[in-house]
Specification:
Layout lengths: L4 E6 L8 H15 L3 E6 L10 H15 L3 E4 L6 H11 L2 E6 L3 H10 L5 H4 L8 H16 L2 E4 L2 H10 L7 E3 L18 E3 L10 H12 L6 E3 L5 H10 L2 E4 L8 H8 L4 E4 L13 E3 L4 H12 L1 H13 L6 H10 L2
Parallel strand pairs: 1-2, 1-3, 3-4, 4-5, 5-6, 7-8, 7-9, 9-10, 10-11
Length: 334
């Protein structure tokens, strides 16, 4: 097997949490074990600088690794992908961009606090600021000059193909890992509802709080746990939780849902989600814009018979996708 020199460009790396950190660590570990020369270039201390300046500084940080690389993987649509594409074009390096979210939609949601779903965001004209229009234009630039663009779900790929200047011939889908773990068959005594996430508008924490208040009118014992921790600690907490709730307005391929289902922990999640078709029967899907819908989803799992039914569904859920599968699929792109 040919050995490659690979650069992984990522905004986050452990102990940071998030999809890019998870996959940067996984790719680096697995490709290095196969004998490839892998370097990871993350933002690190550059995160303290504002957008724009951070991009410029990161470009110079990236340069030494990119000069000797056969290929560079950008694990972000905008923040690291822009410097990567610029340098890659100048140095004539192959660039593969993994799309894990939507920076424009997130920026718009943060500014306006308008509860617009990702699936609806591009369907009509919106009053974008100069910054947001610039993000849109630069994202198009990234897609134009990247050699390959990889989505984690067909759902987001379809949204972006209609909205951006993407060449369908260089766009593909590689689904996230879904490891097989030992399924649990006991019901926790303490009814802890686990819902940790960043404190930003699109995660819909206010909607969750309203929903939980409705639930508490009928049930006295559930406890809402929204504290954030490292992924290893989170998996331990998740295995002991009664259920996991992901009330975000939209999610592309949420690791929180994937981890919970793989552990056999019942999940309530936003129906505006890229993995809904794959996990349609094992997750309780709710309307994130309606606190009553979120509350009804939680209350559904408070019923012992229904709870046991969802645990049984997860125990029979045969779909698996290992980290090795994902790492091999990305490596084969070279």
């Amino acid at each position: 097997m040919k050995r490659y020199t690979i650069t992984i460009a990522t905004p986050l790396f452990p102990p940071d949490i998030g999809g890019p950190a998870l996959y940067a660590e996984m790719f680096s570990r697995m490709w290095s074990q196969e004998g490839h020369d892998v370097s990871v270039v993350s933002f690190g201390s550059l995160k303290k600088f504002p957008t724009g300046l951070r991009h410029i500084l990161y470009l110079f940080k990236l340069l030494p690794a990119l000069i000797k690389a056969d290929v560079v993987y950008a694990l972000d649509t905008f923040s690291v992908a822009l410097p990567v594409v610029v340098l890659g074009h100048i140095l004539r390096k192959k660039v593969i961009v993994r799309v894990g979210g939507d920076f424009l939609w997130e920026t718009y949601m943060h500014r306006t606090e308008e509860p617009v779903l990702l699936s609806d965001f591009y369907n009509e004209e919106r009053p974008l600021t100069f910054k947001e229009n610039t993000i849109f234009d630069l994202t198009n630039f990234i897609f134009q000059y990247a050699d390959l663009v990889v989505f984690s779900t067909q759902w987001q790929k379809d949204i972006f193909l209609k909205s951006y200047s993407l060449d369908a011939q260089k766009v593909l889908v590689i689904e996230n890992a879904f490891p097989s773990r030992a399924q649990r068959n006991i019901v926790p005594k303490n009814r802890i509802i686990l819902s940790p996430s960043r404190d930003i508008f699109l995660k819909n924490k206010k909607g969750l709080e309203k929903a939980f208040a409705i639930v508490k009118e009928r049930f006295f014992d559930p406890v809402l746990d929204v504290s954030v921790s490292s992924r290893d600690t989170l998996l331990s907490r998740m295995s002991e939780a009664y259920m996991v709730v992901v009330p975000s307005f939209s999610e592309v391929s949420p690791n929180m849902v994937l981890d919970a289902v793989s552990l056999g922990v019942p999940v309530v999640a936003t129906e505006d989600c890229g993995i809904k078709d794959r996990f349609s029967d094992v997750v309780v899907w709710v309307n994130p814009k309606d606190p009553q819908s979120i509350a009804s989803g939680i209350e559904l799992l408070m019923d012992a018979k229904t709870y046991s039914e969802y645990m049984a569904r997860m125990s029979k859920f045969a779909y698996t996708r290992s980290e090795k599968d994902v790492a091999a699929d990305f490596l084969n792109l070279i």
